[in-house]
Amino acid sequence: MTTETLVLAGGCFWCTEAVFEQVRGVLDVESGYSNGQAERPTYEDVCTGATGCAEVVKLVYDPAVIGVRDLLTIFFATHDPTTLNRQGADVGTQYRSGIYWTTPEQADAARALIAELQAQRAFGAPIVTEVEPLRHYWPAEAEHQDFFARHPFHGYCLAVAAPKVAKLRRAFAQHLKPDRA
């Protein structure tokens, strides 16, 4: 089996991870930090905004099961790509919207989908998602991995992550893992 890696920043990594853990063809989801200047930053470092790192999820997926365009369509449907350095109440550069590609085909797919969404005025405001090659990825601390699965009744999970997962289940049922449908 051939796999590919794509890294996405869609605000708090707990929410983005919760969504992509459900998606068929996604073999591994890991929360982390990327595309900043700091080496091996901690959560506390990233929260200062001084590292330049975004909270991200690293997806390892099987392109024979799910293509990058479908992954990106889910990504755009489950976060707000029009707010610069912000997702809801979470504010700071670490919460920016970003697609950090590992292959030129991923970059092309991201740019093409953004152009289509812009032409359709899909969000009513310009998309500010950055599309850049992946630089500097570090896994987040253990307490941030699988956070939604381990803490489904945490206030943030109930208020922010659960609605995103519910939207995924409604709008993208065809992409759910069999045990998640």
Automatic annotation (TrEMBL):
Source superkingdom: Bacteria
Catalysed reactions listed for this entry: [thioredoxin]-disulfide + L-methionine + H2O = L-methionine (S)-S-oxide + [thioredoxin]-dithiol; L-methionyl-[protein] + [thioredoxin]-disulfide + H2O = L-methionyl-(S)-S-oxide-[protein] + [thioredoxin]-dithiol
Coiled coil ranges: none
Keywords: Oxidoreductase
GO molecular function, one term: peptide-methionine (S)-S-oxide reductase activity
Domain Peptide methionine sulphoxide reductase MsrA, residue spans: 6-157
EC number(s) from the headed UniProt entry: 1.8.4.11
Catalytic site: C12
InterPro entries: Met_Sox_Rdtase_MsrA_dom, Met_Sox_Rdtase_MsrA_sf
Broad enzyme group: oxidoreductase
Pfam families: PMSR
Similarity annotation: Belongs to the MsrA Met sulfoxide reductase family.
Described function: Has an important function as a repair enzyme for proteins that have been inactivated by oxidation. Catalyzes the reversible oxidation-reduction of methionine sulfoxide in proteins to methionine.
Name of the protein this chain belongs to: Peptide methionine sulfoxide reductase MsrA
Organism: Tepidimonas fonticaldi
Gene name tied to this protein: msrAB
